[in-house]
Structure formats: structure tokens, C-alpha cells
Amino acid sequence: MKIKTVLIANRGEIACRIARTARTRGVRPVAVHSEADVNALHVREIGHSICIGGGPASESYLRIDAVLAAAKAAGADAVHPGYGFLAENPEFARAVEAAGLIFMGPTPETLERFGDKASAKDAAIAAGLPVISGAAGALSDPDQIAAEVRRMGLPVLLKAVGGGGGRGQRLVADEKTLMADIEGALREAKSTFGSEGLLLERFLPEARHVEVQIAGDGKGLVVHLFERDCTLQRRHQKVIEEAPAWGLPRDLLERIAQDSVRLGETLDYRGLGTVEFLVSGEEYFFLEVNPRIQVEHPVTEAITGLDLVALQLRIAEGAGLGLKQGDLTIDGHAIEARLYAEDPAMQFAPSTGTLTTLSLPDGLRIDSGVEAGDAVTPYYDPMIAKLIIHAPDRETALARLALALDHVAVEGVETNRAFLAALARDAEFEKMNVHTRWIDERLDDLTAAAKVPGIRLWKAMAAVLFVTRGRSDDAAEPWSNRDLFTNWRLGLGGDAMEAGQRVMLTDAAGSVEELCVGPVRSGDTYTVYGSDGAALTFSCREIAPGRWRVAQGETVDVATARLHAGVIEIDAGPGRLVFRPAPPLASAAGESAAERTVASPLTGMIVDVKVSEGDAVAEGDVVAVLESMKLEISIKASASGIAANIAASKGMMVDRGQTIAEIIPPEKEQA
């Protein structure tokens, strides 16, 4: 059956990506959206979208009835679930097929089998795949789980039976936190996956994560599209993915791939799926199956030359795979980095807000679901974009990824850009001397602010642009009048510092510096004084709209720059730099008590309050635990003192920036 219209039951970058392929195959895509997504990029790009409910996913993207009603209204022949939301829900797949539509994924029976980790493990054992040893079956009683963990011996991995994609996993490594870890894992399993059952598995401390992409026609033919390495993870969440798995013996990888195919064949697997493994030395162990398209599917597309969404469409139409295992070869190396709106300084908590600036580099594949001006809301996964590099070899791919990340600029939310750039340049990662907990063990080093080469020159240029661009000599408004604003009187002499204009600049790392731009001299030469009094003299001339020639001594650089949305964006040799400027009085303020106010980093629900009124609190102590975007985030005190004015309680919904408590100095409390 030829599919004419497909309803995409998803949002963001995957909805945009599915729509692009659908159009190339002559299939009309139709979108759905929540009330919070009415102006979202996938709605704008797809062009026809149906509202299915409120902002929270439970009121929209997880509503089977609303999605089916939208499919009927759109006259769809098929439904593509994307990933996340309802993609692995067997009841949704059944409902789609019962409505006479094509579900572009595995059968409901397959989704049931792999949706439960205990059942998936049984299927793997039946197919002859090696599995990690652990307690038999799923457990939900905290005392029973604790007893089993002690029997197995620490460390032990707790895994929600309904979890997936790295979610619902918690490592227990310390007897002191055993009960708290168990209770947190049970709570997360229930709130996120609807089941309290946990699997207990032996923890492999230095393993690599390798997954195999399979595709089946639903009639017994299954092929593999080679493997991906997803070892770089933070708290079991993938950060950078690549294909193929570099540095592992090809015969070992071939055995893993054949096991994956055999597992698919035992179930007459239909559609795309990913079989995941842990590799430790020469051993490998089955983890789980993700019966859907993966976030990281572009790296497989890059090395195989296939369009995986087109393959899904072909399978759904009953046309089979159209390829054999022998037809598939590996071309070069591909690597993908996930750019997220998250704050590394706040335990990588999602960062919500409006993207006032979003500049992404050219020359590579970028899959994104947002543009400048769009909002990152607390309702959904905060991914901004995926940067995908395809190169002849891994060394070149890593170098190109690092350079591309340097030329990413985002304002309005915090991001993991600098963290990703540090990973791309890390010597141990380059040698692949890493394991699944390697990031967690080196997190402080990887999130330390990197020094940007030549930052002083570009900061000085930003100051010059701020006090000169967009102003004229005859404007009546003082802010717009260059002469009045800068206090420059050319040729009148006098002290340069007195005649100059001061400006406060905040860089992407949050560092604030006051600079003074001296009067312009012949040849468009400026002298900019730093907060330490050191002078930097250079010439700065616009040679084309937005393109500047910057000369200092014998060195000449050409950079692009623009002033927009209250920021100055400069793209030069070190990368794309963003500065937020303000006149000095705008930042003038005395010492505030802000550091003693414990505020929620984002919108969510308080699941636990760890302190009581009058408790002594040390800097770094956890004051409360917040659940947002299916993650539990510890809210910590930034100063020591006494807990006071506690304004939150368990189960309470809080907004970003809302005060949770205050930490008052001990001497103030005694007074």
C-alpha cells in the first residue's frame, strides 16, 4: 500500500526530520502540537498541524485518543511515532492498527516484549545472547531490594523495568546511601515510567556501550546496519555518538551484530530497532532493545548512505527492505554531538527560556527543532540541535566537530556547548581510553571554563562596536547620538581615559569586565583599557556589511560581527563569541543577598525537602530535590548558615527562580 499522508506523532527535530524525508518520497506530512508548541519550528516547517492538548506531554503528546483523532482529521494513512512519547507504547500501536492505519514501527507484541526490561532479557537469553548477571525478575519492595543488593555486593545498577534510552538507571555504590538510592529509583520509575519494578544487575565499571542498528521486514528477514559507539555518557544519558565503533576488533563487532540479527529473526522483527550491549574486554553483554528510530540514527545514515526514515516508509508500505546484508558497507567515520539547553554549573539541569541568539555553523549536517526566537519550555526534552560530522577517518571527524562547536553561539539559555567542545578535544577520548562512567569521573575538568585564544582582542572589539555602531552624530536622542553617548571630542586632547566611554561586557562564561574605549584615532585605530588598566591598541574597519578587518601590530584578522537582541556576536578565529554589553551604571549594585537565596533552577515539582527551619546548612548541602523533565535535580545551598523561611514542601509545583528557602548567616540568626 502506498502511503499518501503520514501523521507525525511527535515534535521538535525528529518531527522536522521525518517530514523532510516524507516529502522526498511524495508523502504528505501532517504535524501535531500542544498548546505550548503552537509556534514551534516543527509546526512552521511542516505547514499543517493539529492541536492535541495542553503543554504537559500527559495532556497532549501522550494522549492516544487525541493523536488518533488528529490522524483521522488529517486523512492519514499512517502514523510515525518518532522517538520518545508514544513510540514504544504497545497500546498506541494497537490503537493505530485498530483504526485501520499503518503504525510505522514494530508490532504491538514486539513493543510489549522489549518495553519491559525483564521480558527483553528473557528474549535475549532465549536467542542465545550473553546477559549481565543479577537478581532474577523485577523487585518493588525497598527492603527486599536492599537485601538483594547486599547479597550481590556493591556496586549494583538499579534499572526501572519500563526505562529506556538511558533513563531510569541508578548506580548504588555506597551502603550509606543505599536506601535513599533505592527510594529515589522507585520514585523515578513510578513517576516517569508508570511502574515501580526494578531490575538489579552487576555493574561493569569500565565498559564501552556499543549498539547495533537492525532493520527487519516483518517476515523473517533482518539485516544489521553496523554498530554505533555511545560510550560517552553522563549519568547514563548519551552525549556523543559515533559510527563505527573505533578501536574494537572487527570480528568482535561482527559477533555482536550477528547476535543482534538473530534476536530480531526470532521475533520476525518489523521496522527499525537498536540492540544495545556493554563491551568489557573480549566479553559483551546484552542490555536492551530500543524498538524505534534512535536520536543518533544520523551517524548510521552517514556511514551507510541510507535514509533510515525512507527505509521505515518502505517497510511500512510492505515493499520489504530492498537490500541484503552483502549490499552494506562502511564509508568513513561519523560522529554526532547533542547540543542541549542545560546548565553544567547546575548539575546539567535543563535551562528554559527564549533563544535570543542561535547561530550554528555551516558545512555539516544539523538536525534541529528550534530557531532563534523560539522558547525552550519546561515541558519537553531541551535539545537544541544535533551536530553531525562525516569524514574519511575518526581523527578528522573529531577535529571538525571541535571546530564546529567553537562556532556555535546560543543566548537566552545555558548550554553544554563548551562541555562538548572539551570532550571533542580530550586526549583520552581521542585514544578511546574511555568507559560509560568516564565523564562522571572527570566532570569537574570537562566543565572547567576553557581559555579562548585571543579573547582580549575580541572583547575589546565588542566594546568598540557597542559604543560606535548604530549611532549618528546628529541624533536628538542622547543614547543614539554618538558624540553625546561616547563623550568623544576628536582633536581636543586631554586624558584618553577621561574622554573614553566605559562599558560592561559579560562573556558566555558569565565573566563580567568593565572596559574603557578611548577616542578614535586616524586609520580607525582604537585604544581599549581593561579593568586592570592595561591598554590594547588596534584598528577596526568594516570592509563589507558585517565583515571587519581587525589589525593589531603585524597581525590581521577578518571577522564577522553583528549586534542583535541585546548582544554582540563575533565570529573569528577562536570561534563564535557572544558578549552582553551594558553601560557601567546598569550593572552598578552593592553586595546582595542573592547567594543566600535558594531558588529553583527551573519549573518542576518538589519531591523532597531536606532541611527544616533552623537547621545548620553548609555550602553545597542539598536543600531540596526537584523533579523536572523526568529528571531529579538536587538544589544546593551556595552559602553556609541557618535554614530559614522555607517556602516549599513535598509535592509543590514551583517556577524557575522561585525561592525555596533562605540561608541566613549564623550571626544574624543569633542576633
Name some characteristics of this structure.
31% strand, globular, 21 helices, alpha+beta, eight-stranded antiparallel β-barrel, 671 residues
Strand order of the largest sheet: 13-12-9-10-11-14-21-19
Determine the mean pLDDT.
88
| Count of separate DSSP helical elements | 21
Low-confidence stretches: 484-498, 585-594
User: Beta fraction of the residues?
Assistant: 25-35%
Shape: globular
Give the structural class: alpha+beta
Can you give the helix content as a percent range? 25-40%
Q: Distance between the terminal alpha carbons, to the nearest Å?
A: 80 Å
Instruction: Let me know the largest β-sheet.
Output: 8 strands, antiparallel
Rounded to an integer in angstroms, the radius of gyration calculated over CA atoms is: 28 Å
Number of strands: 38
Task: Chart the SSEs and their pairings.
Elements: E1 5-8, H1 12-24, E2 28-33, H2 41-46, E3 49-51, H3 64-74, E4 78-80, H4 90-98, E5 102-103, H5 108-115, H6 117-126, H7 142-152, E6 156-160, E7 169-172, H8 178-193, E8 198-202, E9 208-217, E10 222-234, E11 237-243, H9 250-266, E12 270-280, E13 283-290, H10 297-304, H11 308-316, E14 333-340, E15 342-343, E16 349-350, E17 353-354, E18 357-359, E19 365-368, E20 375-376, E21 383-391, H12 394-406, E22 409-411, H13 417-424, H14 427-430, H15 438-441, H16 443-447, H17 455-468, H18 482-486, H19 496-499, E23 501-506, E24 512-517, E25 525-529, E26 535-544, E27 547-552, E28 555-564, E29 567-572, E30 575-582, H20 584-587, E31 597-599, E32 604-609, E33 616-617, E34 622-628, E35 631-636, E36 641-644, E37 653-654, E38 659-664, H21 666-670
Parallel strand pairs: 1-2, 1-4, 2-3, 4-5
Antiparallel strand pairs: 6-7, 6-8, 9-10, 9-12, 10-11, 11-14, 12-13, 14-21, 15-16, 17-20, 18-22, 19-21, 23-24, 23-30, 24-25, 25-26, 26-27, 27-28, 28-29, 29-30, 31-38, 32-34, 32-37, 33-36, 34-35, 36-38
Helix pairs in contact: 4-5, 5-6, 7-8, 12-13
